[in-house]
Amino acid sequence: MGIEVGGLLGLIWLVIVIWAIVKVAKSDAGGFAKLIWILVLLFFPLIGLIAWFLFGPKG
Questions:
Q1: DSSP secondary structure string, 1-59?
Q2: What is the pTM of this model?
Q3: 38 and 24 in contact (C-beta within 8 Å)?
Q4: Where does the sequence pass through the membrane (predicted)?
């Protein structure tokens, strides 16, 4: 049972990170800022997602 719950939580986490990347890509931020945010989200998913929610583009 533990593996299924872990897999489900991992899938949910992946969907949230992909959603954040799409939101960054569609934002009004400049191209370089978008690139930096996407790289941060890809390489540091937990910290990157928290930082994006707090400091990321709001558009």
A1: -HHHHHHHHHHHHHHHHHHHHHHHHHSSS-HHHHHHHHHHHHHSHHHHHHHHHHHS---
A2: 0.76
A3: yes
A4: 6-24, 36-55
